[in-house]
Amino acid sequence: MKYVEEFRDPAAAKTVLAAIAQITDALKATADAPLRIMEICGGHTHAIFRYGLERLTPPGIEFIHGPGCPVCVLPMSRIDECVEIAERDEVIFCSFGDAMRVPGTGKSLMQAKADGADIRMVYSPLDALEIARRNPDREIVFFGLGFETTTPSTALSIQQATRENLRNFSVFCNHITVPPPIKALLDDPHMQLDGFVGPGHVSMVIGTHPYDFIAQDYGKPIVVAGFEPLDLLQSVLMVLQQIRDGRAEVENQYARVVPEDGNAVSLAAIADVYEPRPSFEWRGLGEIEESGLRIRSAYRAFDAEEKFAVGYGAGPRQSSEPEGCACGQVMTGRIKPTDCAQYGTGCTPELPLGALMVSSEGACAAYYQYGAVYEAAE
Question: Which one, out of 115, 174, 307, 334, has a CA that is 20 to 30 A from the CA of 65?
Fold first, then answer.
């Protein structure tokens, strides 16, 4: 298929849905509960709800929304540290837009900006580099955030700052990696998962081999998926076919974009600039070994944690979630967003209590954004 319309063709979707229903009916005869398939990526969660896929698939399938939203899994203590840096007089703090409204224990970056901090929304770390060139008398800090998808661009920006000797530029590094939290979920005895829909954009960088342990060590199928309706439906079908056949493999539905071995240039930049942290705190999951990245000593001059003595550079800080916030339980698949007592009342996109209601990839935001459409249809 070459065109977007083909990935949204109703006739083709009906054919795939019929195959999904056939396998699901056969598997239901031997199963005591619905098949639980976790989509790891928050972009997939929004696509599932945008296109109504959870309503089109048969009742024997339950989608579990995983920790695939980097803004959502960031603990509140890290937002507090962003605010601490941003409120320094000498600092211009640069951030992606979806991180601006995530609440910390005291305030969000947006609230800090309203209070007078020089905080600017950027679309790329290259924007922050340009701000550093134009403001040599100020410290420019870029909020480095995201999975392997955004990590290469930050790494390349640090390399460029090194070449230009832009010592007024630094990165507050909060880049994290996908495989370790999946392992943490699989090691959790309370998590019952039958298969995974793997992230597409992350896999574009790292390839498919980092997921081999899911099939080899845990016996669970995983299919790397694209983001169009037929991408996701075909991926679900491929997971079901593996379950039916008693197989556990890593398959690549998104082969038109995702190379098996990943992107060599991106991986080289990541390896040059970053090294694994001994551990990193995830909202809802706690500390996970080697799940975060830190800037190598060779690039220490561009490490905001070292420059401003915050975060792990000054020792980790713990912060509890707001009372009544169930973000951690939602992200680990223990409850649905609508099971949270604050959903839609004490927590809305306009006045969010937790990060999942703020981010464009958050599960609560997906439920809230598309839920009213479903209610009207009913």
Answer: 174
